[in-house]
Amino acid sequence: MPVYDGKELRIVGFLCNWCSYGGADTAGVARFHQATDLRIIRVPCSGRIDPLFILKAFQGGAAGVLVSGCHPRDCHYAEGNYYARRRLELLKRFLPVTGIDPERFEYTWVSASEGPRWQHVVQTFTDRIHKLGPAPLLSEPLTDAEMVEFQRQVEAGRGCGCHI
Amino acid sequence: MRIGVFICHCGSNIAGTVDCAKVADAAKAFPDVVHAEDTMYACSEPGQQGIIDAIHEKNLTGVVVASCTPRMHEPTFRRAVERAGLNKYMFEMANIREHVSWIGKDKELNTNKAIDLVMMAAEKLRHNAPLMAKKFDINKRVLIIGGGVAGIQAALDCAEGGLEVVLVEKTTSIGGKMAKLDKTFPTVDCSCCILGPKMVDVAQHPNITLYAHAEVEEVNGYIGNFEIRIKQKTTYVDWEKCTGCGLCMEKCPSKKSYDHFNNGVGTTTAINIPFPQAIPKKAKIDAEYCRMFTKGKCGVCAKVCPTGAISFEMTDTEVTENVGAIVAATGYDLFDHAKYPEYGAGKYPDVITSIQYERLMSASGPTSGHIKRPSDGKEPKNVVFIQCVGSRDKSVNRPYCSGFCCMYTAKQAILTKDHIPDSRSFVFYMDIRSPGKDYDEFVRRSIEQYDTQYIRGRVSLIYPQGDKMIVRGADTLAGAQVEVEADLVVLAVGAESAAGAPQLAEKLRISYDSYGFYMESHPKLKPVETNTAGVFLAGACQGPKDIPSSVGQGSAAAAKVLSLFSKDQLESDPQIALVNASRCIGCYKCVETCPFGAVKEEQDRFNNPKARVIETICQGCGVCTVTCPQSAIQLQHFTDNQILAEVKALCPSMMVKN
Amino acid sequence: MKGLEELKDKIHEILPDLDLVIGWEQGYDGLHATPLFIKTPEDVDRLIIGPLCVHNLATYLPGLKDKKVGVIVKGCDSRAVIELLQEKLINKDNVVILGLTCDGVINLTKLGRKIGSLGAVDDVKVEGEKLNVVIGDQQHNIAFSEVKQDKCENCIYPNALVFDHFIGEPVDRVENVGAEHQSLSDFEGKSFDQRFAFWKHEMSRCIRCHACRNACPMCVCRDHCVAMTRNPHWLSQENNVAENWMFQMIHVMHLTGRCVECGECERACPMDIPLMLLRRQMNRGVREVFDYEAGIDAQNRPPLLTFKVEEDNISEREW
């Protein structure tokens, strides 16, 4: 499903199940209004988040990536977020060399009780990404006309569907 | 794979701001989706039956339900697909209520977002694999932390249910706050008379092991098999020998020790038994005040003790207990009113807290139940009560209502009249909160039968004038400033989380809110569970609670433990890490990072080093999966492929020009 | 590099107890050295050391884990040995390290730019700070400093940091301490968009030959590299900018806190893609946050395999 032109930008969130996903639920239950751009991927622990998932999202054109886990010392798995903190901090410091504005990536800690804080994080981050605009793309997508032509060739048996 | 997608309206909760039919329509175009429909209430009986029927009719091999948060109903739907004959892990949820319909108003954007979330779930599902749970034995013993009324109730109920109970209490006696109260609302029955027998039951119950003056040091393990290290703090008195005769208290020359039990009203001896009904009734030396420790000589208690129980060389010891479940019942503490300079910040002797007033009224208290004000011991005639001290006040970071202060203030006003018939009581209040059985009637009685004068307004200043305290405040109903000459001012201090609550939460791996109160698993449906399996909550550690609620929660937590232990074996969660031995190069980085020591170094039959996960120890965090550069160790149900599928669904590699 | 004869004597002495010793020998022309696997005393005669000996021989160690191996290392190479020891990827009991002191090795790309073609070089000699390149009857005299590897420009570890036998006398070189490589600060002069466009261009040149990975002493996954499998499916086999970029990201991320900046990836790259820029940036972060360098002390714990409850240089990000 394409991102809504002009209205939304693609923002991917990776949230730990126990704290931040719960915090996002708490914000929802309380009807704390938020921007719609963010799509949340639920993982058990921030320690499960491979920095490569974040780079994969950027590779696929994400305009922003937000990671959130339990506050340090409150990890459901005791130590997962400590490992996450190290990995994510290094990723943030690495990004500038790739030309991806490090502001497009953020990590934070939100507990399951912090609905208002989650709303604040989402709103702040979404506003920031909208200021930065769409992400630079690694590849130029085919134009609509080229897509139609490609489709025609596939149907005529000349193209190869496995590229899709 | 044959995927069925079900889009729940949740009445108007979702359908109000999401076009559910459109989402279902869009889902029909997703890879492997062979069936998609919208449904009114997916979780209802007909809703679940609809899913089961569709699985049978369309030969579905996987199901996506888009509805509320998986933290709510994932278990419900997993059971439903299991009833239809599928493995319950061949199921995914898209959260289009808490994360979509409830937080956005634009129907078009919401619908678009819901379609994305369903696509993510379907893409993940395409990489799901059936998982099988394993069974493991459970240790049917329970640890209860905190010996207040909630902990006592939980301990007694568990013990009566046949469980072995380990009860750990921080102070030297169980009883908690309730033991300090004179009377309880709304019945005005004697607190200690109703609690005392329960305390004795705890002491005498063959199934209960009590560690008083002890603290939980470390918690290891998992549901069914926790290992608890308990620190038995030193008392300098051998409790095996101490009979609680109290002779040492009579002879102790250091009589100016801070009296913790009486909250500083009066003093006690350096060696003391906190109160006559204490359980266990054993003496403890307060080293801060004991002359043997401060001056290096004395030893009177050691001389007089008939059993020779005193030992100045005694040190902290440690015990280890193995249990299968834990109940946290650590209670609350009272707000420190020193944060309010307008109330004297604690420097006026005749401005006291409600709990100190309880001790003044208690027959076992320092004044033997005669209300005497601290400054000169005179009987007060005008008593002013100020409510919401450290409650409902953002300026001191206590925006919440402590719940029980309105009620105990009404009780204290009534008791004041009982003790001193010619006295007058004034109550400054913000609102009266009395939602409980017979609660509002009780407040009315205080006003109507006991002539308590309620003044709606905040107090701006308390200052001394002669031997009186002048209480200046607003009467917002009369629209006037009022000043009351008081002989004694009682501050209705609010509840705050117990000191050390966050530290204990970290040991238990449970969550707590920004005030230090423990988080229940669900605010309505799982009030005594936590998000850590096998750890339950009872009483005011979860939030301010009065006695009936605390007792109710104590019983509820006990019921949860008993039902957990009704089985001999538990099913382990199969969402744990698994090593693909053919990809593992034996670098053992996973062994180093696993927080639980669940990964072991092993050799395969060609002596190649390989990692192996011990299934019962792994908790499923996935730290190892990120550590492994070959992606050889994969957290089941959250594999690289599954998460990548979600990322790719959101951020697809495009058709590109080469 | 000095002490060839001393080195040869030492190898003769230790060879009977070992399965092999890894060094360098002259390659197919006067310009290229190539790794030499010494198994017999006769092989020792072919050994060379000098500015052509660019290869980090530590790369071979994990693959020879069960053998008794001697390995000749320069200062930079020795860091790779240490990092492998830190990660317990090699067994110290099975390795004999012959440490050298080094005053830089040649970057063939730079040399090629100076002399035009690298096709028919007969001989290369170092004479002080001068490099004498012989092509037929032509002689090129080039300042050695102009054709050194980038890593040699601000090298602070000219001597092997770990060794069982040190050959020659260690040299003192402290003038570079703390200096960050110029290439990184130059690159930072560009805007984010320019940097992104730069990599887009470079990745369009990448042919995914995996030479950078194969030369890397830290890429120990070998046949189990995630870039080569469909389970998990991190990368498709498609050769396009986005997938090439992702491949390089995987390589950098898997080197986090482990890269010893030996520069083998960049040297091995047939397309001359400046991969070290990425590594230097990552290592800068590791230095700043953890005050840590990989491959300095075999007792150090790699930063991603441990944590501190209170991190010294990470803010709690209250926003």
From TrEMBL, chain A:
One of its GO terms (molecular function) is iron-sulfur cluster binding. Residues 11-133 form the F420-non-reducing hydrogenase iron-sulfur subunit D domain. It holds the Pfam family FlpD. The keyword Metal-binding applies. InterPro entries: MvhD/FlpD. Keywords: Iron, Iron-sulfur, Metal-binding, Oxidoreductase. This is Coenzyme F420-reducing hydrogenase, delta subunit.
TrEMBL record, chain B:
GO terms for molecular function: 4 iron, 4 sulfur cluster binding; metal ion binding; oxidoreductase activity. InterPro entries: 4Fe4S_Fe-S-bd, 4Fe4S_Fe_S_CS, FAD/NAD-bd_sf, HdrA-like. The keyword Lipid metabolism does not apply. Keywords: 4Fe-4S, FAD, Flavoprotein, Iron, Iron-sulfur, Metal-binding, Oxidoreductase. The keyword 4Fe-4S applies. Gene3D superfamilies: 3.30.70.20, FAD/NAD(P)-binding domain, NAD(P)-binding Rossmann-like Domain. It holds the Pfam family Fer4_4. Its cofactor is FAD. Residues 233-264, 281-315, 575-604, 609-638 form the 4Fe-4S ferredoxin-type domain. Belongs to the HdrA family. This is Heterodisulfide reductase subunit A. It comes from Desulforhopalus singaporensis.
From TrEMBL, chain C:
It comes from the Bacteria. Transmembrane segments: none annotated. GO terms for molecular function: iron-sulfur cluster binding; metal ion binding. Signal peptide: none annotated. InterPro entries: 4Fe4S_Fe-S-bd, 4Fe4S_Fe_S_CS, Helical_ferredxn. The keyword Iron applies. Keywords: Iron, Iron-sulfur, Metal-binding. PROSITE patterns: 4FE4S_FER_1 (PS00198), 4FE4S_FER_2 (PS51379). Residues 197-217, 250-279 form the 4Fe-4S ferredoxin-type domain. This is 4Fe-4S dicluster domain-containing protein. It comes from Desulforhopalus singaporensis.
